[in-house]
Design goal:
Layout: H1 12-32, H2 43-53, E1 60-64, E2 71-73, E3 78-82, H3 83-87, H4 91-109, H5 112-140, H6 145-182, H7 188-228
Parallel strand pairs: 1-3
Antiparallel strand pairs: 2-3
Helix pairs in contact: 1-7, 2-4, 4-6, 4-7, 5-6, 6-7
């Protein structure tokens, strides 16, 4: 947030959407984690079966600590599933496992947005780390105006990363639902539950992207105001 000023009102939509997104993912995941899939497959078994059906026998599926800490690591080619998802056979577990498998398939097929996002990781990390520091320095030392400009430039890479993430996540969810349906791993009613979980998860990425974009707009307005002064 950096500091309070009238431009903070720009962030209100992102804050409200973030709160709603957190509520949706929490409530949807909790609700469907109580409903066991008819197939009885665990998240680990679901991921393994989908990987094998796509010829990705060398991608490993491993448990990881934490709640909703599930992710695919393209560097090691490992699908990391939180213990509840790894061991659970609920609709939530199956949906999340299929989503992460979708990322593994994106990686194997050279899906361009994912390749682009992976290439952005170093500069995005630099932007999210150094950007706020440079911005703070520029705000508190107005005589060194280029610090604020450099900070905003660095932060813009972190914002771009958030935007690129959106098609990657939505595509992974689309792939997940298609795979679960075509493989007869979930029935039509179960697919609705899985879609609800994945849509709620996707909303958190939309909220993060909106927050990043609005923060960038706010910083640009502040910078322009200082230049006019």
């Amino acid at each position: 947030m950096f500091f309070w000023d009238p431009t903070m009102v720009l962030l209100i939509p992102a804050i409200l959407l973030s709160l709603y997104a957190q509520y949706k993912i929490s409530s949807s995941y909790k609700h469907y984690s109580k409903i066991r899939s008819q197939s009885g497959l665990t998240g680990a078994q679901t991921a393994r079966a989908l990987l094998n059906s796509n010829g990705l026998y060398d991608v490993r599926v491993e448990p990881i600590r934490g709640r909703l800490s599930d992710h695919y690591d393209p560097r090691t080619r490992v699908i990391n599933l939180s213990e509840d998802v790894f061991q659970g056979s609920s609709l939530s577990s199956v949906a999340v496992a299929a989503h992460e498998t979708g990322h593994a398939i994106q990686h194997a097929s050279g899906y361009f947005p994912m390749t682009l996002r992976s290439s952005f990781v170093p500069v995005a990390n630099l932007g999210s780390g150094a950007g706020p520091i440079l911005i703070m320095a520029g705000l508190f030392i107005p005589s060194v105006g280029w610090l604020l400009q450099l900070g905003i430039f660095a932060f813009s890479f972190a914002v771009l990363f958030q935007i690129i993430t959106l098609p990657v996540e939505y595509n992974a969810s689309h792939r997940a639902l298609s795979l679960l349906q075509s493989g007869n791993m979930l029935g039509s009613e179960e697919i609705k539950g899985a879609r609800s979980v994945l849509n709620a998860a996707a909303l958190t990425y939309v909220a993060a992207a909106l927050a990043a974009v609005l923060q960038l707009v706010r910083l640009l307005l502040i910078s322009r105001g200082r230049s006019d002064d």
